[in-house]
Specification:
Blueprint lengths: L1 H15 L3 H17 L3 H16 L4 H18 L2 H13 L7 H18 L2 H17 L3 H15 L6 H15 L5 H17 L3 H8 L10 H17 L15 H15 L2 H10 L4 H14 L4 H19 L5 H10 L5
Helix pairs in contact: 1-2, 2-3, 2-4, 3-4, 4-5, 4-6, 5-6, 6-7, 6-8, 7-8, 8-9, 8-10, 9-10, 10-11, 10-12, 11-12, 12-13, 13-14, 13-15, 14-15, 15-16, 16-17
Length: 338
């Protein structure tokens, strides 16, 4: 709260002084703080206003700052259509980039949005370029983010978890002694997810234990840690409780939380309502579908989940046509949906 108040003061000082560029930057930082705490909708509104102000500066770097921060909020909200429009507008502003960090942020955003849209083939093809620019990035945060982003998607694919683990190793090495608590938490939570998905809940808990007392700067990372921790305990036969995701939660961890609650608490109604109503990313959505199919009795509801998820699974499989090994592994992983 103190940080937000200080940023508001900085915004007002910049407005009073007629410094639109400084005002935009202060607004984007405040939006990022609120977004990391789970306020993606508020963050979106702030960044939308910041982008309008940035347009008056005719400064590409300032406009892209607003666009990139707006993209963070849109991704958190699962608004694929608007995110795609904003990232293309940001790229169209100029054929070049102010610096390698700006280039990395835009390339990462494009890859992330392709995954959100279910274009797995496009995302896989874009990944080498994203990793290359991330490795060149001078800013540690941008470099580490570019290594973690593809790992987040790959860990949900049976054929990609080894690659995800290798990327997390590289990200941790690049992080070094930098005190980036959010990235330390993110890397640890993703390592725990890999362990759990590989069938080793004890290792998942061991990885999570030193993280649970640390602050999770991004609200979505705390949600990931919560479902991984609860599901690991449940699979080890230990008492486990997992609350429903809060209103406005990032749809990526929220979807996996519903899948975990289904296994732990048998919350079929909550999982089904989320599956049918939320704008969930396709990979997480399919994991929830498989969990529902394991729990729903024969009948119209089960048939509806099966049909809808089957259509999505086939579309994603087809997007991997240029990657036959990944396509075959995908079909095997989601065989109940074909």
């Amino acid at each position: 709260e103190r940080a937000e108040a200080e940023l508001r003061t900085a915004e007002e000082a910049a407005r009073a002084g007629g410094d639109d560029a400084c005002r935009v930057r202060a607004m984007c930082v405040r939006a990022g703080v609120l977004g990391d705490r789970g306020g993606a909708a508020v963050s979106r509104a702030i960044c939308t206003e910041a982008l309008e102000i940035a347009g008056r500066t005719h400064d590409v770097a300032v406009q892209r700052t607003a666009q990139l921060n707006l993209l963070r909020a849109l991704v958190a909200l699962g608004d694929v259509k608007e995110a795609l429009r904003v990232v293309e507008a940001a790229i169209a502003l100029s054929p070049g980039f102010t610096n390698v960090n700006e280039e990395q942020a835009l390339v990462e955003a494009r890859c992330t949005i392709a995954l959100m849209a279910g274009d797995l083939g496009i995302a896989l093809e874009a990944a080498p370029a994203m990793l290359a620019v991330s490795r060149r990035a001078g800013e540690t945060y941008r470099a580490v983010s570019g290594l973690v982003a593809p790992a987040e998607a790959l860990l949900l694919m049976d054929s990609g978890r080894a690659d995800a683990a290798a990327l997390l190793d590289e990200a941790e090495a690049r992080l070094g002694d930098a005190h980036l608590d959010d990235m330390i938490f993110t890397i640890g939570a993703r390592r725990a997810a890999i362990a759990l998905l590989d069938g080793d809940p004890a290792r998942a808990l061991a990885i999570l234990s030193p993280l649970l007392d640390r602050p999770a700067w991004r609200h979505q990372d705390r949600l990931h840690a919560d479902w991984i921790h609860a599901l690991s305990r449940h699979r080890l036969g230990e008492p486990a409780e997992l609350a429903a995701p809060p209103e406005g939660a990032n749809p990526e961890p929220a979807t996996l939380m519903h899948a975990a609650r289904l296994e732990i608490h048998g919350d079929t109604d909550g999982a089904l309502a989320w599956f049918e109503g939320a704008a969930a990313p396709p990979l997480e959505r399919l994991h929830l579908a498989l969990a529902l199919l394991r729990h729903l009795p024969a009948g119209a509801e089960r048939d509806r989940v099966r049909a809808e998820a089957g259509t999505l699974a086939r579309r994603l499989h087809d997007s991997l046509a240029a990657h036959p090994a990944d396509a075959a592994a995908w079909r095997q992983q989601f065989a109940p949906l074909f």
